[in-house]
Specification:
The protein has helices spanning 2-21, 34-70; strands spanning 76-78, 84-86. By secondary structure, it is mainly α. The chain has a domain at 35-90. The chain has a two-stranded antiparallel ribbon with strand order 1-2. A hairpin with a 5-residue loop joins strand 1 (76-78) and strand 2 (84-86). The longest helix is centred in the middle third of the chain and has 37 residues, at 34-70. It is rod-shaped and about 75 Å long.
Length: 90
């Protein structure tokens, strides 16, 4: 009974060993055509510029929030989540 249960396991491991031992397929060196290469560079530059701009905007917003928290506006109040709410006076 133990031989039958171990045989499928032995077959499985032999099959998996065959798959592991297969030679790796070689990839062809495909050259990117020049126009596509320039488009890729343009897109990459635009993405980099966008990320830099977003980073600057986020920094400016964080500075503005820090200033507002330290110098609160009388009619505005910040809750525990950092959200500004208008304070209604009676």
């Amino acid at each position: 009974m133990t031989k039958k249960s171990s045989e499928p396991h032995a077959k499985m491991s032999a099959e998996s060993q065959e798959k592991v031992q297969e030679p790796a397929r070689e990839m062809k060196d495909e050259k990117i055509p020049l126009p596509e290469l320039h488009q890729t560079r343009d897109v990459s530059e635009k993405v980099t510029e966008s990320r830099e701009l977003l980073g600057k905007q986020m920094s400016a917003n964080l500075i503005a929030i820090a200033e507002l928290i330290n110098k609160p506006i009388p009619q505005m109040q910040v809750d525990e989540h950092g959200v500004f709410h208008e304070v209604k006076s009676n």
